[in-house]
Amino acid sequence: MRPRLSSFERAWADAALCTFFPAPPRSVLAHGIDEMGPGQFIDDILMETPIEPSIGLRLALWIIALAPLFTIRRFATIAGIEHDDRVRVLERLLASRIYAVRQLVLGFKAMGALLYSQSKRLRTQMNTPKAPVVRLRMKGEAHADAAQ
């Protein structure tokens, strides 16, 4: 039996995933991932997956959590800094020169995307066109207003 995430690890997961998938007004989508329980989702994933992937996911969480110490020189975890600072930290991790760091963080984000894509409201919003379809002219075709 593997240990479940502690409360501070869940807070880290919530902070990181809410930065990747923010709520309005920072996003044009209907809601952020925060209302979907991202920390609990990561905890459930860790309990269901084989040991190797669960170690990698937990390692990614710890890298993200402690990254403010190394990326922006702040003595805080990812949950203890403001949203704009979290964005900077995650951008730097995703641009890291170290391949394993980039891929672990990207994998963590992908796990959040699996949760976020379960929202029926978001899928409906993303599949509903907002503007009417505009007909494009082919090369050499006259403009409708030019004929008048």
The average pLDDT is: 89
Structural class: mainly alpha
Number of domains: 1
Number of helices: 6
| First-to-last CA distance | 77 Å
What share of residues are in beta strands?
under 5%
CA gyration radius, whole angstroms: 20 Å
Order of helices and strands: HHHHHH
Low-confidence stretches: none
Task: Characterize the main sheet.
Answer: none
Q: Roughly how much helix do the residues carry, as a percent range?
A: 55-70%
The total strand number stands at 0
Overall 3D shape: globular
Explained architecture:
There is one protein chain. This protein has 148 residues and is mainly α. It has one domain (7-126). It is 57% helix and 0% strand. Helix 1 (7-20) packs across helix 4 (83-94), helix 2 packs across helix 3 (51-71) and helix 3 crosses helix 4. The protein is globular.
Protein traits:
globular; single chain; 148 residues; 57% helix
Question: What is the strand and helix layout of this fold?
Answer:
Layout: H1 7-20, H2 38-48, H3 51-71, H4 83-94, H5 99-116, H6 120-127
Short description:
This protein has 148 residues and is an all-alpha fold. The protein has helices at 7-20, 38-48, 51-71, 83-94, 99-116, 120-127.
